[in-house]
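Supplementary Note 3. Input sequence used for the single-chain structure prediction.
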Amino acid sequence: MKTIIKCLVLLVSIILLNKMDANSQQSDLTHQDIFPGGINVDYGWGHFSVQDDFFSSEVYSGTMPYFRVGWSRNNNKRAFQLNFKYRSSDEIKSGTFSASVLNFSLNSNYLYPIGV
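The predicted structure, written as discrete structure tokens, is reproduced below.
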């Protein structure tokens, strides 16, 4: 009975792998856009750590949320990106001391592919 079950599991596995392999193949080679375009939003929660020997040799660390909004526009073989990132936290601590941290950045990028 165990060998029959093993054979059935093996058969079902082979069938599923063949179906997945057939669906994962590249279907179209005529797509001309290299860079994605549009608006994107990222968010998350991560760990932040900083050490500044000017004030103290202690390491200040804690959790910090992350938020980013980006816009990109592509024009045949080049792209322009504009990103806004914001991170802020009052939970950055070292022992009995705490600090408020604000991290803000505005980036712009020009992307050109090589060899296309």
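Helices lie at 2-23. The chain is about 20% helix and 55% strand.
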